[in-house]
Amino acid sequence: MNNNNKSKKDIFTLAKKMQKPIIKSGFILTFFILAYSLLFSTDVYELFYFTDKSFLYVKGSEIYFLVQDFNKLLFVCSILFIISGISMLVFFTHTRRKYYLSNYITSILFSIIAVVLAIIIIVNVVNFRIEYLKVDFEQYYKNTQDFPNYRYVKSTFYFDLGIVLGVLMLIEAVLVVVNLIFKTKMMKKEEKMDKKVYALAQERLSEVHHG
Length: 211
Description:
By secondary structure, the protein is an all-alpha fold. The chain has one domain (18-184). It has helices at residues 2-39, 42-45, 63-90, 101-132, 137-146, 157-210. Helix 1 (2-39) packs antiparallel against helix 6 (157-210) and helix 3 packs antiparallel against helix 4. The longest helix is centred in the C-terminal third of the chain and has 54 residues, at 157-210. It is rod-shaped, with a radius of gyration of 26 Å. It starts with a helix and ends with a helix. The model has no long low-confidence stretch (mean pLDDT 84).
């Protein structure tokens, strides 16, 4: 029984220590997503010069047009994601001993946005990566050799990075929810202890009174 209580105490102590790192890492992650939304089209942009079928056309270069709407959506969502991250700090979700309704709302909102945005990023980026690999890189390379002002890029770095960031967002969403669950349990435990202390104090006071 004592070992069981000690294990529970250790878990709650760990949860308390992890509160600040979890919330702050989530906040930092929002800025990485914003930066990613601004850099996402960097390599694909080079293909814009080869989309004209009457001049220097490269098969598969149409992917440039496919990513534009997604890039705009990603930017808007990343702004919302940052706002949700800031809101957690504004209501002291990273340091507050006792959580209020505002902390629950901001944590849940952050987690929902993180999960939805992660799915949007992963699904779209995987599809774009497949389309990007269909580009005629041989012709692409030849065109850039003939016209040195154009840059030849074959890297899938930004697509791969999107998948990694999407996974990190899912992990962060889970951690924020776990923090919320442990925080709720800790609050209930403290409330129970406070009631016991209050009842004991009342009992002692009654004894003194009658003595």
